[in-house]
Amino acid sequence: MKKKQAAIIGAGIAGLASAIRLRAQGHDVSVFEANNYPGGKLTAFEKMGYRFDMGPSLFTMPHLVEDLFKVAKKPIHSYFKYKKKKNICTYFFEDGTYFEAPAEQKEFAKKAAKTFDISEKELANYLNQSKKKYDLTAPLFLEKSLHKTSTYLSKKTLKAAINIGVLDLNKSLSALNEKTFRDPRLVQFFNRFATYNGSSPYKTPGIMSMIPHLEQHYGTYFPVGGMHQITLCLFNLAKDIGVKFEFNSPVDEIITQDNRTTGLLVNQKRIQADLVISNADIVPTYRRLLPKHKAPERTLSQPRSSSALIFYWGIKKTFPQLDLHNIFFSKDYQKEFEHIFEKQSVYDDPTIYLNISSKDAPKDAPKGCENWFTMINVPNNTGQDWDTVIERSRTKIIDKLSRLLKQDITELIEQESILDPRTIESKTQSYQGALYGASSNNKFAAFLRHPNFKSNLQNLYFCGGSVHPGGGIPLCLLSGKIVADLIEKDE
Length: 491
Known about the structure:
Blueprint: E1 5-9, H1 13-24, E2 28-32, E3 44-47, E4 50-53, E5 59-60, H2 63-72, E6 82-84, E7 87-92, E8 98-102, H3 105-115, H4 120-142, H5 149-152, H6 155-162, H7 173-180, H8 184-191, H9 211-218, E9 220-223, H10 228-240, E10 244-246, E11 251-257, E12 260-266, E13 269-272, E14 275-278, H11 282-289, H12 297-300, E15 307-315, E16 325-328, H13 333-341, E17 352-355, E18 370-378, H14 386-405, E19 413-419, H15 421-428, H16 445-448, E20 460-462, H17 473-490
Parallel strand pairs: 1-2, 1-14, 2-10, 7-16, 14-20
Antiparallel strand pairs: 3-4, 5-9, 6-9, 7-8, 11-12, 12-13, 15-18, 15-19, 16-17, 17-18
Helix pairs in contact: 1-10, 1-17, 3-4, 4-6, 4-9, 7-8
């Protein structure tokens, strides 16, 4: 393959993955990042002796990280270590139900059958269907470009088409779960997987019931040193194989000539490039970086995913009943999601996602203390009064946690930092602070995501959570692979 100059906009996870793969193909690769650090949403900070992972808190499908070390021909153990979790998460329901979900599928079914109104066989059948949906669709929807004819000319695509009836495309995830489970707690439990791509279980199609398979089959893991180690290991790997990084270097424009890209304008300096890969959100990519080119308005106008409001709390106590990952469910899940996707600003009883990395990494908090990543789902940023939302949400969260944990936590908070949709948008350029780009609230959402290439502009490619195949660490890593494969095929 002829060596080319590749310029990547953004050092998020997808940008790092693309950089490693393109460098392994023999290209000269430079990454231009507006911030002074890599990782995008997957970063960290320290304050008053507490260390916090700022963004994603669950690590699944580690083989996608391992693949990058294989293509780079470097030993992963020299850069990155992680351990499998015995329990995925601890769940707290308003009726007092307390459920630690085992990672191993048979053990999960056995324990869940003792806690909820269901048999082991019924749970096993649901999870087997989850696996079938994933196996049928992953080669089409996740691993290749949806926008190339060659993707559809395969036996796997034909098999998926023949079995389209089992994919539950014509009913919502919640409707599927309500039909499957008698116990409303289990409906809520499996509905929560819609949050993995920032969608509503009452709108996203039933095919999303394949998401539990990712936890039960591949397992869940915690990197030694915290989630930020995923960013650091890929950043160090990229540097070691020759990728160049330019931080504090916001891109002003993607330079084009006729029907091809020729480089970037960075800090008002022209950078020549044969290949340009944008890891920036697709909306600002068109609005700011491609102002001379017609934007795909139908794609850019798709409803955005949910966002998040996160309180990073230093807690002056340890709570033995809490795990690394904990979820405190709301009473009325449907009302919660109506609130999020109707852009209402405040909901009185949110589901709380509480992650405590100091459970597995004691150095993340002072002795006898815990670092709490306390998150609720909120609407994306469309001009709400976020200061009021933060104040009211904080009160509701503290009240709920204090009640369910049977201790007032107000005086235990000795350190507090806050991340809201406004700061998510300003720090990561994610349009409206949406965590996953467009939502997946209809069965055509996958096809309406922007392709990983631009058909009328040669040598321009796209990766990251706002384009195909979607948001979250695994899908961002896959988008980097899709881009590298497209470039190799185009060459």
